[in-house]
Structures are given as C-alpha cells and as structure tokens.
Amino acid sequence: MANLLRISEPVSLALHAAALLARRKEGRIANHQIAGALAVSEHHLAKVMQQLAKVALVDSTRGPGGGFQLKRPASQITLLEIYEAVEGPLGTAECLLPRQVCDGTQCMVGELVHSVHQHVREYLARTTLADLAGRFTLVSL
To answer: pLDDT, tens digit, for every residue of 88-113?
Structure first.
C-alpha cells in the first residue's frame, strides 16, 4: 500500500522548493541553493521552477543576486495550484487497470479509488503553501 498515492518527482520538487521560498521572509533564493538544500539536480530543479514561473507562482531573476521568490503570499497559493502547474489538471479517478474491463457500475475498488481521489483533491485545494511551509524543518539552507 506504500504506492497507493503517487506524487511525481517534479511535483514533489515543486512543493518542496515552493515551501522553501515561503519560509524566506525576503529576498530571492538561487536555484543552486534550493537544489543543494533538497539534494537534487540543479538542472532538473530549474525545469520545475520554470514551470512555476510560467504560471506566475514564482518570479525568476537571472544574474548576480538573482533567484526565485513567490509572486503572491504563501497563504494565497494552494498546493493544488502547484500540482497543476507541473502536472496539469488533476483530472478524475480512473480505472486501476491499463484498460477498463468492466462496465464500471460495480467496480471492485471503485468506491475506494473515488474516495481517495476526492480526499486528495480536497486536501490539495484547501492546504496553502503557508500551511506546508510551517510543517517541516530542513537540515540546512
């Protein structure tokens, strides 16, 4: 059951990086600093951050003194916004098989799948970046 809920690596990077930005009271954080704090590839992180910048969740500045900062207060950014910036719309619950083999009216685990999907959607929609930022402590930054 450890894999019941899968969050892609890019979404996880986006959530963690945005939470770091939310914890910073002022100023920008350079991509290499975020990558170092999260122990991830700078190149991979830069791609994720570009996606957040594209939908105006973060502001990006190049050069000395550059880096990333949130465009809005963390209390006004939901985790669903971050998720969808990276993965696209969350969508609906689907059949667990690669190809649907039943008519869907009496799915073996359909109620569970729909319930988990709805719970995840509601959690992401109601939880703000400010909520998330206060829940973890990094070793260093």
So the answer is: 998 777 777 777 777 666 777 777 87
Is CATH 1.10.10.10 correct for 9-133? yes
Q: Whole-prediction pTM value?
A: 0.85
**DSSP label of 103:** -
| Ordered alpha helix ranges (H), the chain | 9-23, 31-38, 42-54, 79-87, 110-126, 129-133
- Tell me how far apart the alpha carbons of residues 10 and 8 are, in angstroms, rounded to a whole number: 5
- CB contact at 8 A, 13 and 58: no
What is the torsion angle, in degrees rounded to the nearest 10, for the CA atoms of residue 39, residue 132, residue 125 and residue 91? 20
